[in-house]
Amino acid sequence: MYDPIHALIHAHPKFQELVRKRERLAWILSGLMLALYLAFILLIAFRPDWLGARIRPGAPTTWGIPAGIGLIVSAFVLTGIYVRRANGEFDRLTRELLEDVTR
What we know:
Elements: H1 4-11, H2 13-46, H3 48-51, H4 64-102
Transmembrane segments: 25-45, 65-83
InterPro entries: DUF485, Inner_membrane_assoc
Protein name: DUF485 domain-containing protein
C-alpha cells in the first residue's frame, strides 16, 4: 500500500535537507565515538603502564578509571548533542515539511 503523500514528502526539498543534515550529524557523532573508543583500546594495548599508573603516589585510583569514565560520559554528551539537534532543528524541519505537504 503506497500513499501518494509519501511521494510528495520524498520529493520535497525540505525532506532532502532533513535527511542530509540528520545523516551528516549521525556520521560525525558516530565517527567521533568510534575514534574515542579506538583511542581507549589503543591506550590499553600500547600504554597499559599509563592507564595503570596512580593519579598521585599512594592514591588508590589509576588513570584508567577517569579515562573509562570519560569515555562513558562522552557517549552521554554525544547523545545529548544529537537529541538537542533532533528536538530543535530536525523537529522544526519536519513541521515545516508537513505543513508544506498537507496544504
